[in-house]
Design goal:
The protein has 14 helices and eleven strands. The two termini are about 30 Å apart. It has two domains: about 220 residues, P-loop containing nucleotide triphosphate hydrolases (Rossmann fold); about 100 residues, no CATH class. It comes from Fusarium phyllophilum.
Length: about 375
């Protein structure tokens, strides 16, 4: 998967619907499409996990509302998908690869490009990732991390849709892959559907898009398995380091026994933040001083900031300089439009929607 969140570019037309299932070279094709089409690509996993929480929350809602063939597409789902995908030249990976029907309805002129792989190798690869993504401790470990705290709910929503679509979850078998390919051949117009193998390089992809092969630019070769393993290790470690200091003897292991062990090689705190080790050997990020807090908030359009928490990396910004700053802040949180709350003594933001507590028991 990719390592960086991509910002949409207003006015950009979606040209490619990536129909390749996970572990078929979606990271490589994403980078290749970004080069060929000269624009941002919506790689589903990267956007959901590294973007603002509205990204992953929206996909959970879309997947939970999804209905199989024979039932009309939810208008609400089309609107939600459009909100996330508009402004990108292409969408790849899950959940887009199993929402091709919806994406074709929204973007009737887009090509449908499906990355393929040896089906037995794909089955083995999917078995490995399925085992890792359903570990019982992930909800606890990832809870301190924005967006990733919803990882388990997101995976559960994907599994539910996968079962409705293919009739299986774990273990995922070649049946799902073959059903997917068959569905594409039966439902996507032939002039819009292209199958490519990333091992073949630029030529098949460029031919499908009627574009010249880039000169002196090697085709991206990104190992999906290694990229996902690296991503998982990095963010599980981040989650362990951000858990409260008051850990019991049976809780996850501490991430370091000194300030040096907490430093950026093991725990990369964001800019303006510094790593700190507690008496119980747990790392967390703090804003080093009031000046750093203010700088952090001022970069985001606020006048000052403070840290209201004892053990968590968090900062509360005050004194938004404009309603536009509040509007962006509320949108990033998935809380609708926003404006300055003039009744608040610190000039906090008022959002249209409340920030609901995270409930690990209740399910929609």
């Amino acid at each position: 998967m990719g390592q960086h969140y991509s910002e949409p570019r207003p006015g950009t037309k979606l040209q490619v619907i990536g129909a390749g299932l996970p572990r078929t070279g979606t990271a490589s094709i994403s980078r290749a499409l970004a080069i060929l089409l000269d624009g941002p690509v919506y790689h589903g996993g990267t956007q959901a996990f590294l973007g603002p929480e509205v990204e992953i929350k929206t996909w959970i809602q879309v997947l939970n509302q999804w209905r199989p063939e024979g039932i009309s597409i939810s208008r609400s789902n089309l609107d939600l998908i459009r909100e996330r995908v508009d402004g990108f030249v292409a969408i790849t990976d899950s959940p887009g690869s199993t929402l091709v029907r919806e994406l074709m309805a929204i973007y009737p002129d887009a090509k449908v490009i499906c990355t393929v792989r040896d089906v037995e190798a794909w089955e083995r690869s999917m078995a490995a990732v399925s085992t890792k993504s359903t570990q019982w401790f992930l909800r606890f470990v990832l809870f301190p991390l924005p967006s990733l705290r919803y990882f388990v709910d997101y995976i559960n929503a994907l599994r539910q849709q996968w079962f409705l679509k293919f009739g299986e979850t774990e273990p995922v078998t070649s049946s799902s892959y073959n059903q997917h390919i068959t569905w594409l051949k039966e439902n996507v117009p032939k002039d819009r559907l292209v199958f490519v193998d990333v091992r073949d390089g630029w030529e098949p992809l460029c031919k499908a898009l009627d574009l010249p092969v880039p000169k002196d630019v090697p085709f991206p070769r990104i190992n999906d398995s290694l990229a996902i393993d690296s991503f998982a290790k990095k963010h599980v470690n981040r989650g362990l380091c951000k858990t409260p200091a008051s850990q019991g003897p049976n809780d996850p292991p501490a991430c370091g026994d000194s300030y040096a062990a907490c430093k950026f090689d093991q725990f990369p705190c964001d800019e303006h933040f510094s790593p700190k080790v507690t008496d119980t050997h747990h790392c967390y990020c703090i804003l080093a001083n009031k000046k750093a807090m203010d700088a952090y908030c001022q970069e985001r359009g606020f006048k000052s900031g403070s840290n209201p928490w004892k053990y968590y990396y968090a900062v509360e910004c005050h004194g938004a300089v404009s309603d536009q700053v509040c509007n962006k802040d509320c949108h990033d949180q998935g809380r609708g439009n926003g404006r300055i709350d003039k009744a608040h003594p610190n000039g906090a933001c008022a959002c249209d929607k409340p920030n609901p507590p995270y409930d690990t028991c209740k399910r929609s």
